[in-house]
């Protein structure tokens, strides 16, 4: 089984590696033995799980599957990252950013995905700790075009790893970054002079490059852990999946002594097509290992049709399961939304329609959900 010791950092730069998606990238050797591309933990944990599953059929239902499978989880360190009562906030500010180092940049989508999304691993040396659901700020190099003589503005990115990072040693953080590309509406051609500054800087970075980091920031998407048996309904479009990858690794991949998840995590992910799915292998493996604790529904707008014959968006999936979702919310489930701003109006409309069909007032329900701290939105 992998340990943080196995993931101890070296600083030699490796030859380019080819990811399972066929994309080329390079990483710092040893910096992430259990990196995004190295899925060896999946085989190990699934093998142990099959034995566990056989035992599970014969034991009392009181033991939840997560507890039984915990032996196959990955050890994390340092455990003092669990001891703070409050999440770290703005340890590094724009005027005094932390200089971190790029460990790896890997294309996270297949060849037929429209656009490019990259998984970026950053070495912060354990100096910029964060909690799952928080964001980092990145200050791209160069001058602020709107304020000559000043640095570029900070851009925020949701952190896509747990506090232990992809190498389980508390020294790295991962981001899921979509390249912002500008297409001239007249010609339909890309105009590189107007491409997004920070997303392209991050996706073009090489192992060993230095980057200016601020944060961590944000409290709204923190994973509530007071009840380890709670239900978490996570709704994402595209890179909005980033905070959920962190949650799910904490719930199902890592051996965190004080957080033994035994509830239900239900992920709805909306992307263009199957090549655009992010972290699909990880999520699919949780489905196999923890069928009682994880559900995963995908909306592929360019490949699937909704019940009216239109494109399948994430709100169509929500509508499909609306009865269950409403019951879970009534029972205290948390619901999270993360991704592009444009996702919210369609989703809110669907929820309102479903509430009305059930004879409920959506406005009242929404204010109750907010009051109960069950409603978490981070859109950009
Ligand atoms: P910018 O340089 O800021 O440009 C913005 C847009 O304007 C681009 O689309 C660019 O093509 C366009 N543009 C540039 N010049 C022109 C022009 N002259 N005319 C017209 N258009 C122009 N993003 C992620 O990818 N992943 C995340 O996990 C993520 N998490 C976020 C979390 C939060 C809380 C927030 C607030 C945002 C998050 N974002 C995330 C968005 C991210 O912060 C950036 O906004 C995004 O990467 C674009 O920044 P950029 O520097 O690349 O583009």
UniProtKB/TrEMBL annotation:
Keyword Lipoprotein found: no
Family (UniProt): Belongs to the ferredoxin--NADP reductase type 1 family.
Functional pathway: Energy metabolism; photosynthesis
Binding site for NADP(+): 158, 178, 239, 301-302, 311, 339-340, 378
Cofactor: FAD
Residue ranges annotated for the FAD-binding FR-type domain, each copy included: 95-223
UniProt enzyme class: oxidoreductase
Catalytic activity field: 2 reduced [2Fe-2S]-[ferredoxin] + NADP(+) + H(+) = 2 oxidized [2Fe-2S]-[ferredoxin] + NADPH
Entry-linked Gene3D superfamilies: Nucleotide-binding domain of ferredoxin-NADP reductase (FNR) module, Translation factors
Gene Ontology biological-process entries: photosynthesis
EC number, as in UniProt: 1.18.1.2
Molecular function in Gene Ontology: ferredoxin-NADP+ reductase activity
InterPro entries: FAD-bd_FR_type, Flavoprot_Pyr_Nucl_cyt_Rdtase, FNR, FNR_nucleotide-bd, FNR_plant_Cyanobacteria, OxRdtase_FAD/NAD-bd, Riboflavin_synthase-like_b-brl
Protein name: Ferredoxin--NADP reductase, chloroplastic
Cellular component GO terms held in the UniProt record: chloroplast thylakoid membrane protein complex
Lineage: superkingdom: Eukaryota
Keyword Chloroplast belongs to the record: yes
Keywords for this protein: Chloroplast, Electron transport, FAD, Flavoprotein, NADP, Oxidoreductase, Photosynthesis, Plastid, Transit peptide, Transport
Pfam families: NAD_binding_1
Subcellular location: Plastid, Chloroplast
């Amino acid at each position: 089984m992998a340990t943080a010791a196995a993931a101890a950092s070296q600083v030699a730069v490796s030859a380019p590696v080819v990811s399972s998606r066929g994309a080329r990238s390079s990483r710092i050797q040893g910096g992430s033995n259990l990196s995004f591309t190295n899925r060896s933990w999946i085989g190990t944990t699934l093998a142990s799980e099959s034995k566990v599953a056989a035992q599970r059929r014969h034991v009392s239902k009181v033991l939840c599957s997560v507890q039984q499978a915990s032996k196959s989880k990955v050890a994390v360190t340092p455990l003092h990252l669990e001891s703070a009562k409050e999440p770290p906030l703005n340890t590094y500010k724009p005027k005094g950013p932390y200089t971190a180092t790029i460990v790896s940049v890997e294309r996270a989508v297949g060849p037929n995905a429209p656009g490019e999304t990259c998984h970026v691993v950053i070495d912060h040396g354990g100096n910029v700790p964060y909690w799952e659901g928080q964001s980092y700020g990145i200050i791209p190099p160069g001058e602020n075009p709107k304020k000559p003589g000043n640095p570029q503005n900070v851009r925020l990115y949701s952190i896509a790893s747990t506090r232990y990072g992809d190498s389980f040693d508390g020294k790295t953080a991962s981001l899921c970054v979509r390249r912002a590309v500008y297409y001239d509406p007249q010609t339909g051609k890309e105009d590189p002079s107007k491409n997004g500054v920070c997303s392209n800087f991050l996706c073009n970075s090489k192992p060993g490059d230095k980057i200016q980091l601020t944060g961590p920031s944000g409290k709204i998407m923190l994973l509530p852990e007071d009840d380890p048996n709670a239900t978490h309904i996570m709704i994402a479009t595209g890179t909005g999946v980033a905070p959920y990858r962190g949650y799910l690794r904490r719930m199902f991949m890592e051996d965190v002594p004080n957080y033994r998840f035994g509830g239900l995590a239900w992920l709805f992910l909306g992307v263009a097509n199957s090549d655009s799915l992010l972290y699909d292998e990880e999520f699919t493996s949780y489905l196999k290992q923890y069928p009682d604790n994880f559900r995963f529904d995908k909306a592929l707008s360019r490949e699937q049709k909704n019940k009216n014959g239109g494109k399948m968006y994430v709100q169509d999936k929500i509508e499909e399961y609306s009865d269950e979702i409403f019951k879970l919310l009534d029972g205290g489930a948390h619901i999270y939304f993360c991704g592009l701003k444009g996702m919210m109006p369609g989703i809110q409309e669907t929820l309102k329609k479903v509430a009305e069909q059930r004879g409920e007032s959506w406005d009242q329900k929404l204010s109750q959900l907010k009051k109960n701290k069950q409603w978490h939105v981070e859109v950009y």
